[in-house]
Amino acid sequence: MRAKVMKLASETHALLTIARFGFKNVFSTRLALLGQFMIYALIVAAYSNVFYHIPPEQLSSYHLTVSQMIWYIAITEMALFCSFYNFLDLQADIQSGLIELSLLRPISVWKLKLAEWLGGFFARFCVLSIPSFIVAGLYAGSFEINFVSVIGIIVSLGLGAIIFLCAHFMVGCATLWLKQSEPAYWLWQKSMFLLGALLWPLVLYPVWLKTIVWITPFPAVLAVTGNWVIGASHYLLIGGFVAQLIWVRIFLKLASLMNKRVWHYWQNEGS
Amino acid sequence: MLKRINYLSGLINANWRTHLLGVKKTLFLAGMMFVQNVIFFMLWAVFFHSFSQIKGWHFADVAILIGCSSFSIGTGIFFCDGICTLARHIEEGTLDGFLTKPRHPLPLLMFSRSNAASLGDMITGPIYWIWFGKVSLMKFLLLLTVSLLAAVIFVAIMIVIYSLAFWLKNNSRFSAQLREVMYIFSTIPQHGQGMVVKIIMFTILPAGFISLLPVQLTQQFDLSLFLALIAAAAIYLFLAIAIFNRGLNYYRGWV
User: Using the beta-carbon criterion (under 8 Å), do B54 and A182 form an inter-chain contact?
Assistant: First the structure.
């Protein structure tokens, strides 16, 4: 028992160190961070101008306001901007054979990668969150957030990040079979845009599509976080939170299984 | 002049042969790109399922807009993807290899790589125009012409964006980000944008020339707009070459 606790403590310490490394790494490219924020602000600005031209009576029939639409896209885009093309990092490791070194470490690759990427995600969140809220507030003309929704956004963002990053790990591992994982990523990313409701809330989706959407993991990555600013019911918010927890569990398991597949592949096929 | 054309066509031909060597891979990548374009476009289908129009623009107009940006960006990247490697070449010092050649390094660099996936973008455009935009044959030809001009503007702005790496050392990610914003901007309906965004869209990130002007030209042909597009293509290309040359001189002095 004591040995188990010791092992867990040492593993947690190692993962936290890696996460700190991921966090610091983000600040090595400050110009890229600035660029990221500029792009974010421009996207929010451009879509805000689109939303201001929606016929008001049509928008109000969905119980939405322009301000809520702007805040929604500001939050979902922020979730997207806090993440990065992490799968490319893993793809490069696999293509160069560096993954072999990672496989020899006492801690599984998927845990190491996830810790590093989560550190990076948190760093980008620290940098981008407040400016993003200001940009959203400026364009929307009002603040659709309060203390509870900020907490809700942070928790949902974190859970969504775990799902998102586990998916990146699996997409990156697909390099072993596809030689190049970008096509798999394109499909994952665009499916997330559509089924995760990146640009507009799920309320606007046709009923048949909404049904499909909720059996996929994508709303748990983006839409659930965005729901905090569109006046969603408590039922929907709690349901979304439960869905996130379920998908986090599933994706962690899938990432661990994928890690095993990679390990077996390497043992059987070699470099 | 003929020698230059022969040289450029030789470079394009070399890229084409590379794709022919791996037809299956090329088709797979192009197909995946096409599928992801369709998935993204469905977002707009959802939007117009809920709302009838955005400042007078309907679903067909947005389809033409996205078709134009897909075709022009796809064409630019298919033929001149090599320019996207400029930042990496500068960082790694491998640009020197291009400088040792007797010809100007820009064409060689531009045509040094072709992106197979962008064939999917090139296919997307005409399909959207015909399927969703329901354009006539004349309008189709007009769209093709203006999109080719837009492709020139896109390549020119890519040269500028990636030439930034001459001055902003070890920040190739910044150039890639600017490219991404070009992609995103050119797929957003631009006619209702505010002044600040419009200024950006017609100057430093000319997404307006890539997708807005082509749509406006198909809605109502205006010779002055058409000439403005040709002039913009010429000016952006001239500026791009000038900036690249300046950067190159800086690089030569730097190494």
Answer: no
Residue A52 is classified by DSSP as T
Which tens digit of pLDDT belongs to each residue from A194-213? Answer: 999 999 999 999 999 999 99
Confidence tier at B198 by pLDDT (50, 70, 90): confident
Range name among A87-91, A152-156, B144-148 with the lowest pLDDT average: A87-91
Does B213 reach chain A within 8 Å, measured CB to CB? Answer: no
Number of domains in chain B: 1
* Exposed/middle/buried for residue A210 (C-beta within 10 Å: 0-12, 13-18, 19+): middle
- Partner A contacted by B49 (CB < 8 A): yes
Q: Residue B214 — very low, low, confident or very high, per pLDDT cuts 50/70/90?
A: confident
SS3 (DSSP) at B235? helix
d(CA A155, CA A50): 29
Domain that holds residue B181: 2-252
Burial (Cβ within 10 Å: 0-12, 13-18, ≥19) of residue A120: buried
Alpha-carbon gap: B228 to the closest alpha carbon of chain A (Å): 24
Domain ranges of chain A: 2-269
